[in-house]
Write a structure and sequence with these properties.
Shape: globular
Largest sheet: 5 strands, antiparallel
Number of helices: 1
Radius of gyration: 17 Å
Length: 156
């Protein structure tokens, strides 16, 4: 993510009623970097992201989120703009702090403040980024759901 200008997350899901949980999450150890939550009780999606070591959130009201039907969700982040499509219809556009740009700046700050006597070539990558589907981590925020499986494509 740190080397990318744009990122899009696409998910097809069917949510159980009276459930709140994480649909998609990227964590760094126990800290969330990006997370999409759904609440059928409040009929909303929540997008959480980390910027300058703080967690920010955007909330999107979606009345039909827990109607026992399959839905498609896409969230695109391009610099400091977030676009949300629900069932292939553009529903929201928001200006946000750029979590992608922040990742680049954080990497630069860490390398500038390196006080170790080891050369960077000998260091191991200490990032612990983990992708979670249907939960925030091994024990947290389980989403009662069904996901549709699709072929994954990576575009360089």
């Amino acid at each position: 993510m740190a080397r990318s200008d744009d990122v899009t997350i696409l998910i097809s899901f069917k949510q159980n009623q009276l459930n709140t949980g994480a649909i998609f999450s990227i964590t760094d150890g126990i800290d969330r970097v990006i997370e999409i939550q759904s609440s059928s009780r409040k009929k909303e999606l929540r997008f959480y992201y980390r910027f300058e070591r703080r967690i920010y959130s955007e909330t999107f009201q979606i009345p039909e989120i827990a109607d026992n039907e399959w839905h498609r969700l896409s969230i695109t982040i391009s610099d400091s703009q977030l676009d949300l499509h629900f069932d292939c219809v553009h529903r929201f556009r928001r200006s946000i702090e750029s979590p992608l740009r922040n990742s680049l700046e954080l990497d630069k700050d860490l390398s500038r403040n390196n006080t170790s006597f080891e050369s960077d070539d000998n260091k191991e990558d200490d990032s612990n980024l983990t992708l979670w589907l249907g939960q925030r981590g091994p024990k947290h925020f389980h989403f009662k759901y069904k996901f549709q499986s699709r072929n994954s494509h990576r575009v360089s």
